């Protein structure tokens, strides 16, 4: 079995380090909400089924990702 030796490097500058960290935490929390909903929702786990709540949660997460990548506040 091969093992990975890649390491994650996090670089912080002295200015404005709080906002990116908070944005990342917010994105993780929103993604966790999407996953938790999908795990417990029969419609989300059924191929071809539609779940309005799951769709809404996913759109909210996607919008937060777009805002974060564009430098806006999520």
In short:
The protein has 74 residues and is mainly alpha-helical. The chain has helices at residues 18-40, 42-45, 52-69. Helix 1 (18-40) packs antiparallel against helix 3 (52-69).
Count of runs of 4 or more consecutive helical residues: 3
The share of residues in extended strands comes to under 5%
Give the overall shape, derived from the CA principal axes: elongated
As a percent range, the share of helical residues equals 55-70%
Largest sheet: none
**Count of spatially separate domains:** 1
Mean pLDDT: 79
The strand count comes to: 0
User: Which secondary-structure class do the elements indicate?
Assistant: mainly alpha
- Residue ranges: pLDDT <50 for 5 or more in a row? 10-17
Radius of gyration: 16 Å
Order of helices and strands: HHH
First and last CA, distance: 40 Å
Q: Helix and strand layout, with pairings?
A:
Elements: H1 18-40, H2 42-45, H3 52-69
Helix pairs in contact: 1-3
Provide structural commentary.
The chain contains 3 helices and no strands. The chain is mainly α and 74 residues long. The chain has one domain. Helix 1 packs antiparallel against helix 3. The radius of gyration is 16 Å and the shape is elongated.
């Amino acid at each position: 079995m091969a093992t990975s030796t890649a390491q994650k490097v996090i670089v912080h500058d002295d200015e404005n380090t709080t906002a990116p960290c908070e944005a990342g935490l917010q994105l993780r929390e929103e993604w966790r909400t999407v996953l938790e909903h999908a795990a417990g929702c029969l419609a989300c786990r059924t191929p071809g089924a539609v779940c309005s709540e799951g769709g809404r949660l996913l759109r909210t997460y996607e919008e937060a990702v777009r805002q974060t990548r564009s430098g806006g506040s999520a």
